[in-house]
């Protein structure tokens, strides 16, 4: 897919969900991004492939646009610099962009894994304590049961 095909598909995907100014802002951003990456030595095809499917990218942008500012949507970390456009560079990598689209799903899985790990830890601690104390507690409980069983009949 060429740059112009990618941008056309992205624009088509964004038009129904964002205002025309927001669509244009995103189009300008990705146009600049592709230009900057090709200037760094990557081919246009590599950059477009790195960005992924424009429809998925549009969904990510749309999902993030409801109350999230541009910097958060396009945040990649600490490697931001001033661009020739007089504003902070909003460079993206593939994982940074797609991560925001699945972050809720990933967080859910991580939460479930964390809960399972905590439960396994609790079970292993309890079973360890029981297996450590069982050789001592079982005879004591048997003796107490026998004393109670026969001790109650003396009256």
From TrEMBL:
Transmembrane portions of the chain: 104-126, 132-151
Pfam hit, one: HAAS
Lineage: superkingdom: Bacteria
Region (Disordered): 68-95
Keywords: Membrane, Transmembrane, Transmembrane helix
Protein name: DUF1700 domain-containing protein
């Amino acid at each position: 897919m060429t740059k112009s095909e990618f941008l056309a598909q992205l624009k088509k995907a964004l038009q129904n969900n964002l205002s025309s100014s927001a669509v244009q802002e995103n189009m300008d951003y990705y146009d600049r991004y592709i230009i900057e990456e090709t200037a760094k030595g990557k081919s246009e095809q590599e950059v477009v492939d790195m960005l992924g499917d424009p429809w998925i990218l549009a969904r990510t942008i749309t999902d993030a646009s409801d109350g999230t500012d541009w910097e958060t949507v396009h945040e990649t970390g600490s490697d931001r610099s001033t661009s020739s456009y007089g504003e902070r560079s909003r460079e993206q990598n593939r994982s940074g962009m797609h991560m925001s689209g699945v972050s809720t799903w990933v967080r859910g899985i991580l939460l479930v894994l964390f809960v399972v790990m905590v439960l396994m830890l609790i079970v292993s601690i309890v079973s360890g304590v029981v297996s450590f104390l069982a050789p001592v507690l079982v005879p004591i409980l048997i003796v107490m049961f026998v004393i109670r069983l026969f001790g109650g009949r003396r009256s």
